[in-house]
Amino acid sequence: MFVPVFDANLCLANAVSSPKEKEGDSPLKDDNSDIVPPANVLKQLAIGVQTTKIIKSMKDLMISSRDSSPVKERSTLSLSAMKSLVVGEKEDTFASEFGRDEKVMSLIHSLTNAEGHLSRRKIGSRVEKNTNLTNFAKEIHGAPPECLVTELAEAIGCLKTLRKMALFWSRVVVEVRRLWCEGQHIPGIPPDEIPNLNSCLLYQQLQVINCCISRKRRRAIATESLDSVLKLANLDGDYTCGDIPPLSPVVYARISSGELVLRLGADKRRENCTLLETGEPVYTPVMQEGPLLTEDLIKETEEFVLRTGSVGVGCSQLLSDMQAFKAANPGCILEDFVRWHSPPDWTEASTDDESKEYVNGDNSSSKGQLSIRMQKEGNLWRELWETAKSVPAVRQSPLYDEDLSVEGILHSLESISPSGLFEQLFLSLLSSGCAIAEGRICGNENMYKTFKECKDYIIVTCQAKSWIEKADDICQVYETVTMMALNPNGVIRVTTKQPQQPDDSETCEQKGGGFGKLGSMFGGGMDSKTPPKNQEPTMFSKKPPKPATPLENI
């Protein structure tokens, strides 16, 4: 499918470029082209959203957009994927399709190479230094600049057919699965950060995969450390050692009976804190990490809790922490755990009361006492403490199954709806481009005022549920933003020629929700189809044609 792409950047460039430029040269060939994503790529993603609404999955898109037999093509693709994973032969159908697309092949190479580097846009330091800049990824639910998702968005937006888009995406998922199986982090995604709920779901899911890889590595290290301690103590699972001299203060702890007991799963010592009954130092245990929840799983969990009233996940985590604490601190009591895990539920004794003794039984000591809620009968913490055994975290039943979670994510990526994917890529590239442009424009006070109007329109429009209906308008405003970043002098020359039309500007502001003067630059408002009468057409008055009907040119 050759999708009609309206390269308005070309028209804009011809309006302000020097006469020396050849007709047909792209304005994005200069050095700035590696900084701001081009507008025609964003338009291509918008067309992808609009033309694939009736298709359920990327697999269906790949099948429906093939010229030959779907069965034959499917078997060919499967064989190619098998060769790339087992034999290492990369010159398959994918290579023959994309061999000339440097951006696509470079991105795939970065995924296949463990030391691959993704982004050409090293703008993070410039953006981060200015804390006043807009967090576009958060405002419109996109993805941060310089990440894999924005690179994917630009690579897919450069493709001209749905078949290539689907084939490229299938290869990306294959490579992500390979990285997971080999325990390699996905490049361009933070290696160990919990899902950023302000970003798009795709970015969150890739974050989960990298987090799971990091967790499995930490678990392997913790298991190796525990095995080495047991081997050094030569106890074969018997964690008590009578009067045997300790190998080191970290390895053993003396309990109230005088026996030395092996510490298991201890991470680091807590400063100025000792166990209430034994006086031994308190050690923070290595604990099981909680579940990694993306926005869709959080919604499912909330619905489950509201429907069933279950709080089982929280109890399981608390019980796991108690067992790990007991293993790392032999001879500890509930008060020790509360002091470490929930400090507000423990009140230290005042200086005047140090010589006095409390008479509240197990709920207090000469050093302090538990909160009222902890002292009540039937308190959940006390019940769990009594049932908790001394088991290090790496020997407990896992609370979160990384393999199952990642497999579910990979399956969802394979079966994702094309329109859902293109929507996320569209918003990610849009937020990235606007963030980069703002970093370049913010130093120009006059230009920045115009940029703010563009920014407000983009944010308000994208936050609405029906933003897809205004995708063409968003693309046109983004063209303005890119032109302000790439050729600010040309934009200033054109905008200064705009006639003063207070009435039209007021109408535009009402229609565009604060779009103000910029509305007249688009020909009398974003909803207008033609420029106002007696107004000279401007470089901003051109609008892209309506996309082809869905699947018309597959």
| Shape designation | elongated
Kindly name the structural category: mainly alpha
**How do the strands of the widest beta sheet line up side by side?**
5-7-6
Overall number of domains: 2
Roughly how many Å apart are the termini? Answer: 4 Å
Q: What percent of residues are in strands?
A: 5-15%
CA gyration radius, whole angstroms: 31 Å
- Succession of helices and strands: HHHHHHHHHHHEEEEHHHEEEHHHHHHHHH
Residue share in helix: 40-55%
Largest sheet: 3 strands, antiparallel
Secondary structure tally, helices = 23
- Please tell me the overall pLDDT: 75
The count of β-strands is 7
State the low-pLDDT regions, or none.
Answer: 1-34, 67-91, 123-128, 354-363, 501-554
Describe this structure in words.
This protein has 554 residues and is mainly alpha-helical. The protein folds into two domains: 8-190 and 408-497, no CATH class; 240-389, no CATH class. It is 51% helix and 5% strand. The strands form three sheets. Strands 5-7-6 form a three-stranded antiparallel β-sheet. Strands 1-2 form a two-stranded antiparallel sheet. α18 (418-441) runs parallel beside α20 (471-486).
Question: In summary, what is this structure?
Answer:
Helix content is 51%, strand content 5%. The chain contains 23 helices and seven strands. The strands form three sheets. The chain has a three-stranded antiparallel β-sheet. Strands 1-2 form a two-stranded antiparallel ribbon. Strands 3-4 form a two-stranded antiparallel ribbon.
